[in-house]
Protein backbone atom coordinates (compact mmCIF):
# COMPACT_ATOMS: atom_id res chain seq x y z
CA UNK A 1 0.00 0.00 0.00
CA UNK A 2 1.21 3.51 -0.73
CA UNK A 3 0.61 5.80 2.28
CA UNK A 4 -0.98 9.19 1.95
CA UNK A 5 1.09 9.95 5.02
CA UNK A 6 3.97 8.14 6.71
CA UNK A 7 2.89 6.25 9.79
CA UNK A 8 3.77 3.62 12.36
CA UNK A 9 1.38 1.26 14.11
CA UNK A 10 1.76 0.89 17.88
CA UNK A 11 0.33 -2.31 19.28
CA UNK A 12 -1.50 -2.19 22.60
CA UNK A 13 -0.18 -4.21 25.56
CA UNK A 14 -2.36 -7.13 26.62
CA UNK A 15 -4.38 -6.69 29.79
CA UNK A 16 -4.40 -9.04 32.74
CA UNK A 17 -7.92 -10.23 31.94
CA UNK A 18 -6.51 -12.07 28.91
CA UNK A 19 -3.29 -13.46 30.35
CA UNK A 20 -4.72 -16.96 30.38
CA UNK A 21 -4.65 -16.83 26.56
CA UNK A 22 -1.36 -14.98 26.18
CA UNK A 23 0.54 -18.23 25.71
CA UNK A 24 -1.13 -18.84 22.32
CA UNK A 25 1.59 -18.00 19.80
CA UNK A 26 -0.27 -18.87 16.60
CA UNK A 27 -2.19 -16.22 14.70
CA UNK A 28 -5.81 -17.14 13.96
CA UNK A 29 -8.50 -15.65 11.71
CA UNK A 30 -12.26 -16.08 11.72
CA UNK A 31 -13.97 -16.08 8.32
CA UNK A 32 -17.75 -16.41 8.80
CA UNK A 33 -18.45 -17.10 5.13
CA UNK A 34 -19.82 -20.26 3.54
CA UNK A 35 -19.14 -19.16 -0.05
CA UNK A 36 -15.40 -18.63 -0.50
CA UNK A 37 -14.64 -18.86 -4.20
CA UNK A 38 -14.20 -15.09 -4.40
CA UNK A 39 -11.83 -15.02 -1.41
CA UNK A 40 -8.95 -17.11 -2.78
CA UNK A 41 -6.41 -14.23 -2.60
CA UNK A 42 -7.36 -13.65 1.04
CA UNK A 43 -6.95 -17.31 1.99
CA UNK A 44 -3.63 -17.45 0.12
CA UNK A 45 -2.34 -14.37 1.95
CA UNK A 46 -3.44 -15.72 5.32
CA UNK A 47 -1.57 -18.96 4.64
CA UNK A 48 1.55 -17.15 3.41
CA UNK A 49 1.64 -15.00 6.55
CA UNK A 50 1.14 -18.01 8.83
CA UNK A 51 -2.34 -17.01 9.99
CA UNK A 52 -4.44 -20.10 10.61
CA UNK A 53 -8.20 -20.39 10.33
CA UNK A 54 -10.25 -20.81 13.51
CA UNK A 55 -10.98 -24.53 13.87
CA UNK A 56 -14.57 -24.99 14.93
CA UNK A 57 -17.62 -26.64 13.43
CA UNK A 58 -19.28 -23.21 13.28
CA UNK A 59 -16.20 -21.45 11.90
CA UNK A 60 -17.91 -20.50 8.63
CA UNK A 61 -20.79 -18.73 10.40
CA UNK A 62 -21.31 -15.95 12.94
CA UNK A 63 -22.10 -18.58 15.59
CA UNK A 64 -18.36 -18.78 16.26
CA UNK A 65 -17.95 -15.03 16.73
CA UNK A 66 -18.48 -15.18 20.49
CA UNK A 67 -15.12 -16.96 21.00
CA UNK A 68 -13.10 -13.78 20.56
CA UNK A 69 -10.18 -14.99 22.70
CA UNK A 70 -9.58 -17.75 20.15
CA UNK A 71 -8.90 -15.59 17.07
CA UNK A 72 -7.03 -12.38 16.27
CA UNK A 73 -8.81 -10.99 13.23
CA UNK A 74 -12.37 -11.22 11.95
CA UNK A 75 -12.77 -10.95 8.19
CA UNK A 76 -16.28 -10.89 6.77
CA UNK A 77 -17.47 -10.12 3.27
CA UNK A 78 -20.83 -8.80 4.40
CA UNK A 79 -21.23 -6.15 7.08
CA UNK A 80 -20.61 -7.79 10.49
CA UNK A 81 -23.34 -9.14 12.72
CA UNK A 82 -22.06 -7.04 15.62
CA UNK A 83 -24.46 -8.50 18.18
CA UNK A 84 -22.93 -11.95 17.61
CA UNK A 85 -19.40 -10.73 18.33
CA UNK A 86 -18.01 -11.42 21.79
CA UNK A 87 -15.86 -8.96 23.79
CA UNK A 88 -12.84 -7.99 21.70
CA UNK A 89 -9.36 -8.21 23.24
CA UNK A 90 -7.26 -5.07 22.63
CA UNK A 91 -5.18 -6.63 19.84
CA UNK A 92 -8.08 -8.16 17.89
CA UNK A 93 -9.01 -6.58 14.57
CA UNK A 94 -12.21 -6.48 12.52
CA UNK A 95 -12.19 -5.66 8.80
CA UNK A 96 -15.12 -3.24 8.83
CA UNK A 97 -15.61 0.22 10.28
CA UNK A 98 -18.77 0.91 12.29
CA UNK A 99 -20.82 3.40 10.29
CA UNK A 100 -19.21 2.70 6.92
CA UNK A 101 -22.52 3.50 5.19
CA UNK A 102 -21.24 7.10 4.99
CA UNK A 103 -18.84 5.92 2.27
CA UNK A 104 -20.65 3.04 0.59
CA UNK A 105 -24.27 4.22 0.35
CA UNK A 106 -24.61 6.41 -2.74
CA UNK A 107 -27.20 8.73 -1.24
CA UNK A 108 -25.05 9.36 1.82
CA UNK A 109 -21.92 9.91 -0.28
CA UNK A 110 -23.56 12.58 -2.43
CA UNK A 111 -25.18 14.26 0.59
CA UNK A 112 -21.75 14.37 2.21
CA UNK A 113 -20.31 16.05 -0.88
CA UNK A 114 -22.99 18.75 -0.66
CA UNK A 115 -22.23 19.23 3.04
CA UNK A 116 -18.52 19.55 2.34
CA UNK A 117 -19.17 21.95 -0.55
CA UNK A 118 -21.10 24.17 1.85
CA UNK A 119 -18.23 24.11 4.36
CA UNK A 120 -15.23 24.40 2.04
CA UNK A 121 -16.48 25.49 -1.37
CA UNK A 122 -17.64 23.64 -4.48
CA UNK A 123 -14.29 23.95 -6.24
CA UNK A 124 -12.70 21.61 -3.68
CA UNK A 125 -15.55 19.07 -3.53
CA UNK A 126 -16.83 18.59 -7.05
CA UNK A 127 -15.96 15.02 -7.98
CA UNK A 128 -19.31 13.19 -7.71
CA UNK A 129 -21.87 13.59 -10.54
CA UNK A 130 -24.96 15.57 -9.60
CA UNK A 131 -27.99 13.54 -8.55
CA UNK A 132 -31.51 14.28 -7.41
CA UNK A 133 -34.42 12.32 -5.98
CA UNK A 134 -37.71 12.66 -7.85
CA UNK A 135 -40.23 14.09 -7.35
CA UNK A 136 -39.02 15.79 -4.14
CA UNK A 137 -36.08 17.55 -5.79
CA UNK A 138 -37.68 18.35 -9.14
CA UNK A 139 -37.01 22.11 -8.99
CA UNK A 140 -33.33 21.60 -8.10
CA UNK A 141 -32.99 19.09 -10.91
CA UNK A 142 -34.61 21.36 -13.51
CA UNK A 143 -32.17 24.14 -12.59
CA UNK A 144 -29.20 21.76 -12.84
CA UNK A 145 -30.46 20.34 -16.15
CA UNK A 146 -30.75 23.78 -17.71
CA UNK A 147 -27.32 24.78 -16.42
CA UNK A 148 -25.67 21.64 -17.81
CA UNK A 149 -27.41 22.09 -21.17
CA UNK A 150 -26.11 25.65 -21.47
CA UNK A 151 -22.62 24.58 -20.40
CA UNK A 152 -22.60 21.76 -22.97
CA UNK A 153 -23.54 24.16 -25.75
CA UNK A 154 -20.73 26.50 -24.75
CA UNK A 155 -18.21 23.65 -24.57
CA UNK A 156 -19.08 22.34 -28.02
CA UNK A 157 -18.67 25.84 -29.41
CA UNK A 158 -15.06 26.14 -28.26
CA UNK A 159 -13.57 22.65 -28.38
CA UNK A 160 -13.80 19.11 -29.70
CA UNK A 161 -13.68 16.35 -27.07
CA UNK A 162 -10.55 14.22 -27.52
CA UNK A 163 -12.43 10.93 -27.51
CA UNK A 164 -15.51 11.75 -29.54
CA UNK A 165 -16.81 14.35 -31.96
CA UNK A 166 -19.42 16.39 -30.17
CA UNK A 167 -20.84 17.62 -33.45
CA UNK A 168 -21.89 14.03 -34.25
CA UNK A 169 -23.70 13.69 -30.93
CA UNK A 170 -26.76 15.95 -30.63
CA UNK A 171 -27.13 15.13 -26.93
CA UNK A 172 -23.53 15.71 -25.91
CA UNK A 173 -23.44 17.00 -22.32
CA UNK A 174 -27.23 16.91 -22.04
CA UNK A 175 -27.77 13.31 -20.95
CA UNK A 176 -29.10 12.35 -17.57
CA UNK A 177 -29.77 8.91 -16.14
CA UNK A 178 -32.89 7.74 -14.38
CA UNK A 179 -31.92 5.02 -11.91
CA UNK A 180 -34.83 2.85 -10.84
CA UNK A 181 -35.11 2.53 -7.05
CA UNK A 182 -35.67 -1.21 -7.45
CA UNK A 183 -32.41 -1.56 -9.42
CA UNK A 184 -34.23 -2.46 -12.63
CA UNK A 185 -31.81 -0.73 -14.93
CA UNK A 186 -31.29 2.83 -16.10
CA UNK A 187 -32.91 5.05 -18.70
CA UNK A 188 -31.39 7.99 -20.53
CA UNK A 189 -33.15 11.22 -21.32
CA UNK A 190 -32.03 14.57 -22.67
CA UNK A 191 -35.20 16.66 -22.49
CA UNK A 192 -37.45 17.78 -19.65
CA UNK A 193 -40.48 16.61 -21.62
CA UNK A 194 -39.57 13.04 -20.60
CA UNK A 195 -39.63 13.84 -16.91
CA UNK A 196 -43.32 13.75 -15.99
CA UNK A 197 -43.65 9.97 -16.07
CA UNK A 198 -41.09 9.70 -13.27
CA UNK A 199 -42.77 12.17 -10.93
CA UNK A 200 -44.35 9.48 -8.74
CA UNK A 201 -41.51 6.96 -8.90
CA UNK A 202 -39.09 8.12 -6.17
CA UNK A 203 -36.31 7.28 -8.62
CA UNK A 204 -32.86 8.88 -8.72
CA UNK A 205 -31.80 11.08 -11.61
CA UNK A 206 -28.06 11.53 -12.10
CA UNK A 207 -25.82 13.45 -14.47
CA UNK A 208 -24.28 11.35 -17.24
CA UNK A 209 -20.54 11.95 -17.58
CA UNK A 210 -19.25 12.19 -21.16
CA UNK A 211 -16.44 9.64 -20.98
CA UNK A 212 -12.90 9.64 -22.23
CA UNK A 213 -12.57 6.71 -24.62
CA UNK A 214 -9.60 4.40 -25.15
CA UNK A 215 -9.61 2.67 -28.53
CA UNK A 216 -13.28 3.64 -28.71
CA UNK A 217 -14.15 1.97 -25.39
CA UNK A 218 -15.46 3.52 -22.20
CA UNK A 219 -13.57 2.43 -19.08
CA UNK A 220 -13.49 2.84 -15.34
CA UNK A 221 -10.64 2.79 -12.85
CA UNK A 222 -10.85 1.36 -9.34
CA UNK A 223 -8.48 2.40 -6.54
CA UNK A 224 -7.95 0.02 -3.62
CA UNK A 225 -8.06 2.13 -0.46
CA UNK A 226 -7.42 1.03 3.12
CA UNK A 227 -8.39 2.98 6.22
CA UNK A 228 -6.18 1.40 8.87
CA UNK A 229 -7.14 3.81 11.65
CA UNK A 230 -9.68 6.57 12.26
CA UNK A 231 -8.05 8.24 15.27
CA UNK A 232 -5.43 9.08 14.18
CA UNK A 233 -6.62 8.95 10.60
CA UNK A 234 -4.44 6.75 8.38
CA UNK A 235 -5.36 6.15 4.74
CA UNK A 236 -3.45 4.13 2.13
CA UNK A 237 -3.91 3.74 -1.63
CA UNK A 238 -2.47 0.74 -3.44
CA UNK A 239 -0.01 1.74 -6.17
CA UNK A 240 -1.77 -0.28 -8.87
CA UNK A 241 -5.43 -0.08 -9.89
CA UNK A 242 -8.23 -2.02 -11.53
CA UNK A 243 -8.65 -0.78 -15.11
CA UNK A 244 -11.72 -2.20 -16.84
CA UNK A 245 -12.72 -1.68 -20.45
CA UNK A 246 -16.32 -2.02 -21.66
CA UNK A 247 -16.74 -5.03 -23.94
CA UNK A 248 -18.32 -3.03 -26.76
CA UNK A 249 -17.34 0.29 -28.29
CA UNK A 250 -19.12 3.38 -27.03
CA UNK A 251 -21.98 4.53 -29.30
CA UNK A 252 -21.90 7.92 -30.99
CA UNK A 253 -25.34 8.81 -29.61
CA UNK A 254 -25.97 7.04 -26.31
CA UNK A 255 -29.63 6.30 -25.61
CA UNK A 256 -31.83 3.46 -24.37
CA UNK A 257 -31.28 1.49 -27.59
CA UNK A 258 -27.54 1.11 -26.90
CA UNK A 259 -26.21 -2.25 -25.76
CA UNK A 260 -25.57 -2.06 -22.02
CA UNK A 261 -22.10 -3.58 -22.52
CA UNK A 262 -21.05 -0.42 -24.36
CA UNK A 263 -21.48 1.85 -21.35
CA UNK A 264 -21.65 -0.33 -18.20
CA UNK A 265 -18.53 -2.12 -16.99
CA UNK A 266 -19.59 -5.57 -15.84
CA UNK A 267 -18.03 -8.34 -17.89
CA UNK A 268 -15.05 -6.46 -19.31
CA UNK A 269 -11.99 -6.54 -21.54
CA UNK A 270 -8.40 -6.37 -20.24
CA UNK A 271 -6.69 -3.01 -20.83
CA UNK A 272 -3.52 -4.56 -22.27
CA UNK A 273 -5.54 -5.74 -25.28
CA UNK A 274 -6.53 -2.18 -26.22
CA UNK A 275 -4.56 -1.02 -29.31
CA UNK A 276 -3.98 2.42 -27.77
CA UNK A 277 -2.44 0.92 -24.61
CA UNK A 278 -0.43 -2.08 -25.83
CA UNK A 279 2.86 -0.19 -26.18
CA UNK A 280 2.80 0.87 -22.52
CA UNK A 281 2.60 -2.67 -21.13
CA UNK A 282 6.17 -3.88 -20.72
CA UNK A 283 4.97 -6.86 -18.65
CA UNK A 284 1.53 -8.46 -18.98
CA UNK A 285 -0.11 -9.38 -15.63
CA UNK A 286 0.02 -13.10 -14.88
CA UNK A 287 -0.29 -15.64 -12.08
CA UNK A 288 3.32 -14.98 -11.07
CA UNK A 289 3.78 -11.26 -11.58
CA UNK A 290 1.69 -8.14 -11.24
CA UNK A 291 2.92 -6.73 -14.53
CA UNK A 292 3.02 -3.09 -15.54
CA UNK A 293 0.91 -0.89 -13.30
CA UNK A 294 -2.46 -0.13 -14.89
CA UNK A 295 -2.46 3.23 -13.12
CA UNK A 296 0.92 4.06 -14.66
CA UNK A 297 -0.31 2.95 -18.09
CA UNK A 298 -3.35 5.21 -17.86
CA UNK A 299 -1.13 8.16 -16.93
CA UNK A 300 1.14 7.48 -19.91
CA UNK A 301 -1.88 7.36 -22.19
CA UNK A 302 -3.14 10.68 -20.82
CA UNK A 303 0.26 12.22 -21.51
CA UNK A 304 0.18 10.88 -25.07
CA UNK A 305 -3.09 12.74 -25.79
CA UNK A 306 -1.81 15.95 -24.18
CA UNK A 307 -3.73 15.63 -20.93
CA UNK A 308 -2.07 16.47 -17.61
CA UNK A 309 -1.43 13.10 -15.93
CA UNK A 310 0.03 14.75 -12.81
CA UNK A 311 -3.15 16.77 -12.37
CA UNK A 312 -5.19 13.60 -12.93
CA UNK A 313 -3.29 11.77 -10.17
CA UNK A 314 -3.65 14.75 -7.85
CA UNK A 315 -7.40 14.93 -8.51
CA UNK A 316 -8.14 11.23 -8.11
CA UNK A 317 -6.04 10.78 -4.97
CA UNK A 318 -7.40 14.06 -3.65
CA UNK A 319 -10.99 12.87 -4.08
CA UNK A 320 -10.24 9.82 -1.93
CA UNK A 321 -8.46 11.83 0.75
CA UNK A 322 -11.11 14.56 0.89
CA UNK A 323 -14.04 12.15 1.11
CA UNK A 324 -12.46 10.06 3.86
CA UNK A 325 -11.16 13.04 5.84
CA UNK A 326 -14.49 14.82 5.43
CA UNK A 327 -16.22 11.89 7.14
CA UNK A 328 -13.69 11.38 9.93
CA UNK A 329 -15.94 13.05 12.51
CA UNK A 330 -18.78 10.71 11.58
CA UNK A 331 -16.56 7.65 12.02
CA UNK A 332 -15.20 8.84 15.37
CA UNK A 333 -18.73 9.42 16.71
CA UNK A 334 -20.14 6.21 15.26
CA UNK A 335 -17.32 4.07 16.63
CA UNK A 336 -17.76 5.62 20.08
CA UNK A 337 -21.51 4.96 19.96
CA UNK A 338 -20.91 1.41 18.77
CA UNK A 339 -18.45 0.69 21.58
CA UNK A 340 -20.84 2.04 24.20
CA UNK A 341 -23.89 0.21 22.85
CA UNK A 342 -22.08 -3.11 22.36
CA UNK A 343 -19.78 -2.96 25.40
CA UNK A 344 -16.66 -3.10 23.22
CA UNK A 345 -14.00 -0.91 24.83
CA UNK A 346 -11.22 -2.72 22.96
CA UNK A 347 -10.51 -4.06 19.49
CA UNK A 348 -9.42 -2.27 16.35
CA UNK A 349 -11.35 -1.63 13.14
CA UNK A 350 -10.00 -1.22 9.63
CA UNK A 351 -11.47 -1.51 6.16
CA UNK A 352 -10.48 -1.85 2.53
CA UNK A 353 -12.65 -0.28 -0.17
CA UNK A 354 -12.53 0.11 -3.91
CA UNK A 355 -13.23 3.63 -5.15
CA UNK A 356 -14.55 3.40 -8.72
CA UNK A 357 -14.08 6.39 -11.03
CA UNK A 358 -15.00 7.24 -14.59
CA UNK A 359 -12.81 9.74 -16.47
CA UNK A 360 -14.50 12.42 -18.55
CA UNK A 361 -13.27 13.59 -21.94
CA UNK A 362 -11.31 16.44 -20.37
CA UNK A 363 -9.36 14.01 -18.17
CA UNK A 364 -11.21 14.71 -14.92
CA UNK A 365 -12.00 11.72 -12.66
CA UNK A 366 -15.54 11.41 -11.28
CA UNK A 367 -16.35 9.11 -8.37
CA UNK A 368 -19.16 6.69 -9.23
CA UNK A 369 -19.26 4.52 -6.11
CA UNK A 370 -17.31 3.15 -3.18
CA UNK A 371 -17.42 -0.62 -2.79
CA UNK A 372 -17.36 -2.30 0.59
CA UNK A 373 -15.59 -5.67 0.42
CA UNK A 374 -14.42 -5.33 -3.21
CA UNK A 375 -14.43 -8.52 -5.22
CA UNK A 376 -11.07 -10.26 -4.78
CA UNK A 377 -11.72 -13.12 -7.20
CA UNK A 378 -9.00 -13.12 -9.90
CA UNK A 379 -10.19 -12.26 -13.39
CA UNK A 380 -8.71 -14.60 -15.98
CA UNK A 381 -8.36 -13.75 -19.66
CA UNK A 382 -6.75 -15.71 -22.48
CA UNK A 383 -3.85 -13.25 -22.45
CA UNK A 384 -3.35 -12.63 -18.73
CA UNK A 385 -4.87 -12.31 -15.26
CA UNK A 386 -4.98 -9.93 -12.31
CA UNK A 387 -4.53 -12.79 -9.83
CA UNK A 388 -1.09 -11.70 -8.62
CA UNK A 389 -2.20 -8.10 -8.14
CA UNK A 390 -5.15 -9.12 -5.98
CA UNK A 391 -3.00 -11.47 -3.90
CA UNK A 392 -0.47 -8.69 -3.39
CA UNK A 393 -3.19 -6.25 -2.35
CA UNK A 394 -4.46 -8.54 0.41
CA UNK A 395 -0.96 -9.56 1.51
CA UNK A 396 0.05 -5.90 1.85
CA UNK A 397 -3.17 -5.08 3.69
CA UNK A 398 -2.68 -7.81 6.30
CA UNK A 399 0.94 -6.79 6.75
CA UNK A 400 -0.10 -3.16 7.09
CA UNK A 401 -2.65 -3.68 9.86
CA UNK A 402 -0.32 -6.04 11.75
CA UNK A 403 -2.17 -9.21 12.76
CA UNK A 404 -0.83 -10.47 16.12
CA UNK A 405 -1.25 -13.45 18.39
CA UNK A 406 -2.00 -12.86 22.10
CA UNK A 407 1.62 -13.75 22.91
CA UNK A 408 2.95 -11.05 20.56
CA UNK A 409 0.43 -8.52 21.82
CA UNK A 410 1.47 -9.16 25.43
CA UNK A 411 5.09 -8.18 24.78
CA UNK A 412 5.86 -4.63 25.96
CA UNK A 413 6.83 -1.86 23.54
CA UNK A 414 6.04 -3.91 20.46
CA UNK A 415 6.18 -1.76 17.32
CA UNK A 416 5.54 -2.69 13.71
CA UNK A 417 7.09 -0.46 11.06
CA UNK A 418 4.91 -0.33 7.94
Automatic annotation (TrEMBL):
The keyword Signal applies. SUPFAM superfamilies: Glutathione synthetase ATP-binding domain-like. It holds the Pfam family TTL. InterPro entries: TTL/TTLL_fam, Tubulin_polyglutamylase. Keywords: Signal. Residues 1-22 form the signal peptide. This is Tubulin-tyrosine ligase. It comes from Aphanomyces astaci.
